[in-house]
Design goal:
mainly alpha, two-stranded antiparallel sheet, globular, 2 strands
């Protein structure tokens, strides 16, 4: 594992801890898209189905179990413990528009037409667009709590760090993963507007507000 992959994983862990901390300390899931969290849970379950039959390493096992369990825990907090604080009237993005194309693409563009491979490919495509409902909520409300923006920034940083990871692997291991790279570029691109506001406002102590 190279430093970029490690930093990416740490940023991903940080984003989850920030989100759980936000929900528990404020006792509210206001501003968080339940649909995005549900999509991420589906991403982890379909990607890490190999936990049932393949062992890679302790690090790999712990990380996979953590991502699955933490995503399910977040869904529990939002669906049951703090359900009154979630406003479904602004979490209205139709996830069918993300699930359908991701499934079709995974059936057409994959490395092997096998169940586990198709599930892995589906998870890659779906992860690249899973943030859409959350960004759609931001667009509708026009603002977000500072801690929520820190969560999104860490999540975006996680994916952005995978770009130099792929470049590093290309030059050191001669490994190229066209599906993961393409999906990663799409996912990183979705964060560009958010990062612009985050760096120009939030990091300067101002409230996160999208331009009118």
């Amino acid at each position: 594992m190279n430093i970029f992959r490690l930093l990416g994983d740490l940023a991903h862990l940080a984003s989850i801890f920030i989100l759980i901390q936000k929900i528990q300390t404020t006792r509210s899931c206001r501003g968080i898209s339940f649909k995005t969290q549900a999509l991420y849970a589906l991403v982890f379950v379909t990607r890490y189905i190999d936990l049932l039959f393949r062992w890679v390493s302790v690090y790999n096992f712990v990380m996979k179990v953590f991502f699955i369990s933490s995503s399910c825990y977040i869904l529990y907090l939002m669906k049951y413990r703090f359900r009154p604080t979630h406003d479904p009237s602004i979490d209205t993005f139709k996830i069918e528009y993300l699930l359908g194309p991701s499934l079709v693409l995974s059936l057409i563009f994959n490395y092997a037409f096998e169940p586990t491979e198709i599930l892995w490919t589906f998870s890659i495509y779906l992860e690249s667009v899973a943030i859409f409902p959350q960004l759609f909520m931001l667009q509708r409300t026009g603002e977000a709590e500072t801690i929520t923006t820190h969560y999104l920034a860490a999540l975006g940083l996680y994916r952005a760090l995978y770009l130099p990871n792929w470049i590093y692997r290309y030059f050191t291991e001669d490994v190229v993963d066209p599906i993961a790279v393409t999906a990663g570029l799409v996912q990183t691109g979705l964060y560009l507007d958010f990062f612009y506001v985050y760096f120009t406002k939030v990091l300067h102590g101002q409230k996160f507000e999208l331009p009118a």
